[in-house]
Design a protein that fits this description.
The protein has about 400 residues and is an alpha/beta fold. It has 2 domains: about 150 residues, Aspartate Aminotransferase, domain 1 (Alpha-Beta Complex), CATH 3.90.1150.10; about 240 residues, 3-Layer(aba) Sandwich (Aspartate Aminotransferase, domain 2). It is about 40% helix and about 15% strand.
């Protein structure tokens, strides 16, 4: 079975547009189902939660339904392990603050030079407590994180290792389960930023046994909202971020100061509805989770085809420097493809692309430390073309023709 692109594109009304969207790692287009649920919530449930009256009870039920759906997306064991917030950046700042009381002077936190700043900066706040921050650097030849390099810096004092599932520049899937097992064997927790992974593959926090795992729902076909998974044994121990009369047992509300956005939490559930429908189009039976996994198999197969076509073109040029894996068939590659062109500035390439009505991007993508390490500033950053499953072969042909004209 192949991906039903007609069905897929019908679910994203914004695609009925003269523009081609290939800046999806910055934010995908939103599902019609999510917009419909926002409207439904406002028109039917727009009251404060926790009241005794029927509309308030209905609003609470809708909010809880959204959390249950996103727990299914994460494959979390418990709905209460999901925390909502406005972005991954904010949620990881909340997490760092809530964890701070568990750290002591001399403890260590390891971050990577590969990550978006969202999963680096919040951990530096712990330096105020005397916590030592270490860097697990990427190998600049392979553009990858290697476990041997982590072995050199992890110690008995290491309390947490923060790393990305996929870099939003390199586009390589890190082996989260393997890394997590090694880190746990050394007595430390893991915090994974999955923003660049979640649109492309099925998330499974239970199988990977991660401690904390976060991604932005607006980069995974939903509204401008985000979710953080906190494994329950850790969730119980997190300090309260809400009013003083909220105890540690106020789960997960203690991690959602001012309350999570009700309508966006409810609307985000439509992401799961869509994936279940996408995974049901072969008429096979199965649980919701099995249908989600089938949907992502279809998504990955389609994206691999797109990835191959683009990387084949870029690899054919003698002036292109591809960042990360240059083989589109590699299962560790997602279609977030960054590159530089010899003797050309990346911003000029993107500005030239605008007239073709194809949206791509240049810069460091808030992974400034990685950009500096790769010396991308000499090009004004990298050019990034980030595809997703609603992109088509025709759109990719249009992109390659435009690139060829611009670069010539």
């Amino acid at each position: 079975m192949t991906l039903d692109l007609d069905f897929v594109r019908s679910q994203f009304p914004a695609l009925d547009n003269e523009w081609v969207f290939m800046d999806n790692a910055g934010g995908t287009q939103i599902l019609k189902g999510c917009v419909d649920k926002v409207n439904e919530y406002y028109y039917s449930n727009n009251v404060q939660l926790g009241g005794s009256y029927e509309p308030s009870q209905a609003a609470s039920a809708a909010f809880n339904e959204g959390r249950r759906n996103i727990a299914t997306l994460f494959n979390a064991k418990l709905t209460e392990e999901i925390v909502f917030g406005p972005s991954t950046t904010v949620l990881l700042q909340f997490l760092s603050k809530s964890l701070a009381g568990q750290f002591r002077k001399g403890d260590e936190v390891i971050v990577t030079s590969m990550d978006h700043e969202s999963n680096i900066g919040p951990w530096f706040e712990l330096e105020k407590l005397g916590v030592i921050i270490k860097f697990w650097d990427i190998n600049t030849d392979t553009h990858a994180l290697h476990l041997d390099d982590l072995k050199e810096i992890i110690t008995s004092k290491t309390r947490l290792v923060a790393f990305t599932h996929v870099s939003n520049i390199v586009g390589t899937i890190n082996p989260v389960k393997k890394f997590t097992q090694f880190i746990h064997d050394h007595g430390a927790m893991v915090c994974v930023d999955a923003v660049a992974y979640a649109p492309h593959r099925a998330v499974d926090v239970t199988d990977w046994d991660v401690d904390f795992y976060a991604f932005s729902l607006y980069k995974t076909f939903g509204p401008h909202h985000a979710a953080l998974y906190c494994r329950m044994d850790h969730m119980i121990e997190l300090d309260n971020l809400y009013h003083y009369f909220y105890g540690k047992d106020k789960i997960p509300a203690k991690m959602e100061p001012g309350n999570a956005n009700y309508e966006l939490s409810y609307a985000s559930g439509a992401i799961v509805d869509y994936l279940i429908e996408l995974g049901s189009r072969d008429k096979q039976n199965g649980s919701h989770r099995e249908k989600i996994e089938r949907a992502f198999t279809l998504i990955a197969d389609h994206e691999t085809n797109l990835c191959c076509k683009l990387l084949d073109y870029l690899r054919s040029r003698n002036d292109c420097n591809i960042i990360g894996i240059d083989n589109g068939n590699d299962i560790a590659r997602v279609p977030t493809i960054a590159f530089t062109i010899n003797k050309k500035l990346s911003d000029k390439i993107c500005f030239a692309m605008d007239k073709y009505k194809i949206g791509i991007r240049y810069g460091d993508f808030h992974a400034r430390r990685l950009s500096d390490l790769l010396m991308l500033d000499q090009y004004n950053g990298a050019v990034r073309i980030s595809l997703t499953h609603y992109n088509t072969n025709d759109e990719l042909d249009r992109l390659v023709i435009a690139l060829d004209q611009i670069l010539s």
